[in-house]
Amino acid sequence: MLEVRNIFKAYEGKPILKDISFSVEAGETVCLLGASGSGKSTLLRIIAGLESPDSGFILFNDLELSNTAPHLRDFGLVFQDYALFPHLNVHDNVAFGLKMRRVDQKQIFQRVVNALELVNLSGFDTRQVTDLSGGEQQRVALARALATRPRLLMFDEPLGALDRTLREDLLNELRSILHQTNIPAIYVTHGQEEAFTIADRVLILHNAEIVRAGAPVEVWAMPESAFVAQFLGLGNVIEGEVSGWQKDNEWTVQSSVGVFDVSCAHKHQLGDKTHLLARPLTVGSARAVKPSEGEDSRNVLQGVVSDVIFQQERFKVVFENGLYVYLSEAPKVGKKIAVPVKVECLA
User: What is the pTM of this model?
Assistant: First the structure.
């Protein structure tokens, strides 16, 4: 098991990682998700031993690794740019790490064959890597990492250079390979779709800290903060003020875009500032709003339609105030409409 304990790292006096702690269990894939500059790649390099933390510890199976050189940690690394040797063929690229470990030639041959089979590249042994597509080159990079039978696999934006269709296909294959091999893995990405597809557990980094951690379904259902809800694009984040109390855990919140009734376990007081998440539901059609209507309507979003975007089997309808809803029927631009939404309290 990998343990990351209280890692702190600063550049030019500015913290890039603050008291970062988490673990990766056997066979588990943990995804570090965050925007560019959130510190996720730096954290990966610290775990790999390519950088040193200002304070904190990295342990594997209770052994502290600060004095262990990167090549002795027995971790596999896969990067976005593949990092293959262009003058070597596929076999020799995959075999490179094994030769550095002075593995027997017969074992090298068999491990290369097995690794290429695992990534669906059987028969590619003698091909030059420069003749391969981007997806095939990334498979070679993965095979090279797998051939050494690492204790931990680490991926730094591995699919960032691939087109969408290829990325989706390779992501599903990678998920299957990780489950087959049962190797623990850390996967770094800024793409939430990638993270939620491959991860058993997601860690969201922001302002040098982990601001949300949990299984993908938990994080999606309970973002717990306005930042996480906005970062994941879960819906409209609305600022409001607690204006009324109905009964246990039921509150009325007044905002610039309407009045909302919400149920939550937070300990509010009248006048408290809060954030709401209004998740757009897909409804058949919206009702038109007459000029005298809508002032007292609750748990609805209303406004003048400024744009209508077709998204597969539904329409994303954007209001002039920037809020949006989903409809199965497209309204006309310029029309004022009202649409019910699911509202939850973030804090």
Answer: 0.88
